[in-house]
Amino acid sequence: GHTILRQPPNRKLYLGSKCVMNALLIVELINSCLFSATGTHYTMTNGGTINSSTHLLDLLDEPIPGVGTYDDFHTIDWVREKCKDRERHRRINSKKKESAWEMTKSLYDAWSGWLVVTLTGLASGALAGLIDIAADWMTDLKEGICLSALWFNHEQCCWGSNETTFEERDKCPQWKTWAELIIGQAEGPGSYIMNYIMYIFWALSFAFLAVSLVKVFAPYACGSGIPEIKTILSGFIIRGYLGKWTLMIKTITLVLAVASGLSLGKEGPLVHVACCCGNIFSYLFPKYSTNEAKKREVLSAASAAGVSVAFGAPIGGVLFSLEEVSYYFPLKTLWRSFFAALVAAFVLRSINPFGNSRLVLFYVEYHTPWYLFELLPFILLGVFGGLWGAFFIRANIAWCRRRKSTKFGKYPVLEVIIVAAITAVIAFPNPYTRLNTSELIKELFTDCGPLESSSLCDYRNDMNASKIVDDIPDRPAGTGVYSAIWQLCLALIFKIIMTVFTFGIKVPSGLFIPSMAIGAIAGRIVGIAVEQLAYYHHDWFIFKEWCEVGADCITPGLYAMVGAAACLGGVTRMTVSLVVIVFELTGGLEYIVPLMAAVMTSKWVGDAFGREGIYEAHIRLNGYPFLDAKEEFTHTTLAADVMRPRRSDPPLAVLTQDNMTVEDIENLINETSYNGFPVIMSKESQRLVGFALRRDLTIAIESARKKQEGIVGSSRVCFAQHTPSLPAESPRPLKLRSILDMSPFTVTDHTPMEIVVDIFRKLGLRQCLVTHNGRLLGIITKKDILRHTAQTANQDPASIMFN
C-alpha cells in the first residue's frame, strides 16, 4: 500500500480526473485499514497528529456545488462532460441489482432519452400547427374579415358558402373586405384606396407589435436562430437563448412577423422553437439537465423535429440536423432525431392546419415525366441559384455589419417599421407580392390543370378538347400569362431587394421561404419560356423527339420547384438534406435527378465566390467561437507559432502544485481574465501536473472559506496527492486536487497546426497545452485557433469575441 501511495502518477495516461480520484480513494482506504490495524496515527501536514479516518474526510467530501458548470458565453469541455456521463452510467449500472427501486431508476434513466424526444416532438408539432393556423388568419385579416365566424380565414369562410362561382371562388357574401365594411363599396377607386390603407395599417401594426415584444421581453427571439443553434450545438453556452421566455415570445412574434407581410418565412424560426422545447423538457431529466454534452443530443433531435414540421419532411429534418446544424451526431442521436421528427409530423398531420390533409401548404403532384434536354435549363437555374446565394450572402452581411457599426442599429423598432412600410406600400399593387409567400410558392409550383383559374394558366385553349384530362397538351400562352410574367419579374426584383434588408432585423425571420419564392419565380418564368419555345419550335432537334404537337411536354411548375431548391441551396449550401426536403414536399420521386443537378450546380457556383453559407457568415459576423468542420486548414504552421504566450507577451500564468497561498491564487484570478491555469510542479521544473479552470477555482475557494474552518488568505493551496510538511503554527491548508483535470490534452511545440485543428474539431476541446521535452511551454485555446484561421484568411482576428 505504501509503495502505491508514494508513486508519482504517470502523466501520459489519459484518465479522467474522476477516475483518478476513485483510484486514490481506494488506496487511501487500504492505507486507513493498515494504519488502524497496527494502531498507528497518521501525521497531518499542519503538524498535529490526527486519526487516519479524519484524513479520509478530505477526499470523501461531497462534490463542491457549482464545480464543473460553465459561465455564459463560454465553451463546454466535451471530454469532461463525456467522462462525467460515463461515470454516472457506471454508478447506475452497479447499483441496479441492489433493489427493485434501483432497477426502476435504471430503467427510467435508459428510457428518459426517448421520453424527452417524444415530449419535444409533441410540443413542436402542436406549436407549429398553432403558428400555421394563426399566421393564416392574421395574414387574411389585412384584407378583410369573416362576419359569420371571426376566427375563420378567407378560404375557410367561403367553404360553406353556396354563392361562390368557379371563376371567383374566393368571393362570398360572408367575407367582407375592409372597404365594404368601412365605406360600403366593394369595387371602384375608393374601395381600392381604402383596402390599400388598411393593408398598410395592419402590416405596420403587426410589425410594431412583434418588434416591441422582442425588444422588451426576449431579445433572443429575433432572427432565424439557426446560426446560434449551430454554435450552441458545437458546445457554446448562450444562457436564455433556448429558455421559456424566448419560446413564448418567439411563437407569438413569429405569427405577427409572417402576418405583417415582411419578406421572411417561419420555417427557420420553427427550428429555434423546437430547440427551445427540447431544452425546456431536458431540465425534467437529471441525465440531461446536469450534462451539457447530453443536452446537445436532445437539441440535435429537436432541430430535426423543427424542420419536420416546417416542411412536412421528417427524413429531410433528420438529414438537415446531421448535415447542417449538428456538431456531434452519434448513431443513438440519429434514431432519436428520426423518432422526434416522426412524432412532430404525426401531431401536425393530426391538427391539419391547412385543411388539405397535408403537412405543408404547397404540396403538389406532377403527372408528366421530365426529359433529358430539360437538364440544360435545370442547370441554368442552378447557376442562377448559386449567383443569387453569393450575392445575397455578401449584400446581407455588408448590411448587417453596417447596422452593427452605425447609429441605425440603435433603433431596431424604427428599422422594422421602415422595412414593413416599404414592403407593404410596394407589395399591395402586385397580386403576387400581396400574397402570403407560402401561397405564392404554392401557386408557382402548381401545374396548370383544367380547374385552375390563375392568370398563370391563361392559355389559349383548343376548342376541340371537350373532356377534362390530367395531361393537357402544351398550348400557346394567352394575354394573362404574359401580364403574369411581367408581374412576376417585378415581384422577383422586389423580393431580391427586400429579403437582403429583412433578414437580420429584430423580429423572427426565416430565410427558407423567401429564398424558395425567389427561385420559384425565376423557375416559373424559365418554365413558361421553355414551354412556349417547345410549342412554337417543336421541330427543333432538341424538342423533336419528345415534344410532338398535342403532347404535354413541359411542366412550368416543375421548373419553379427546381428553381426554389437551387436558390435555397445557393444561400444555405445544403445539398443532400435539401433535395430530400424538396422531394418530400412534392412527393415526386422521379424528379430527384433534376433537383440534384440544380442543387449541386448552385453549390459549386456559390462556392466559387465564397465557401461559407449564410449561417456560417452570420456566425462569423457575431464572433461566435465556431470551428466549422467543412473548412480545410491548409497552412503549414506549427503549434509553437500559434500558442500563447508569444515572444512579446508576459510569461504564462500558472499555478504551482503546493507553493501558492489562497491569496496568491485570488490575486492571479483578479489580475487576469484567463479561463483556466496550467498547474506545474514548480517554477524551476515546469513539469505539468494538470489544468484548473478559473470558475472551479473561484467556487472551490469561496466554498472552503464558508464551510471549512481555518481557511484564510495565507492558507497553502495543495494540488498534490500529499500535502507537504508545514510549520505547526501555519494555517490549515486547502486541498484542491478534486477540481484538477489530471489529463489535459497536450501536444508538442512541433505538432502541425492541421493536426491541432483536427483534434479541437473532433474532440470538442476548449484548450490544449503545448510542451517541449515534457516541460510546459504555452497554451492554445479555441479562440487562438479561430483568430489564427481568420488571420490566415486576411480577416480581422479581433472579430472573435467569445471564449
UniProtKB/TrEMBL annotation:
Membrane topology: Multi-pass membrane protein
CDD domains: CBS_pair_voltage-gated_CLC_euk_bac, ClC_3_like
Any one GO molecular function term: voltage-gated chloride channel activity
Main location: membrane
Subcellular localization: Cell membrane; Early endosome membrane; Late endosome membrane; Lysosome membrane
Pfam families named among the record's database cross-references: CBS, Voltage_CLC
Membrane-spanning ranges: 20-38, 111-135, 199-221, 241-262, 269-286, 298-322, 371-393, 413-432, 484-505, 517-538, 558-583
Cellular component per GO, a single term: plasma membrane
Record keywords, A-Z: Antiport, ATP-binding, CBS domain, Cell membrane, Chloride, Endosome, Glycoprotein, Ion transport, Lysosome, Membrane, Nucleotide-binding, Repeat, Transmembrane, Transmembrane helix, Transport
Keyword Cell cycle: no
Domain CBS intervals: 643-707, 740-797
Keyword Repeat in annotation: yes
Role, per record: Strongly outwardly rectifying, electrogenic H(+)/Cl(-)exchanger which mediates the exchange of chloride ions against protons. The CLC channel family contains both chloride channels and proton-coupled anion transporters that exchange chloride or another anion for protons. The presence of conserved gating glutamate residues is typical for family members that function as antiporters.
Entry similarity comment: Belongs to the chloride channel (TC 2.A.49) family. ClC-3/CLCN3 subfamily.
Protein name: Chloride channel protein
Source organism (scientific name): Calidris pygmaea
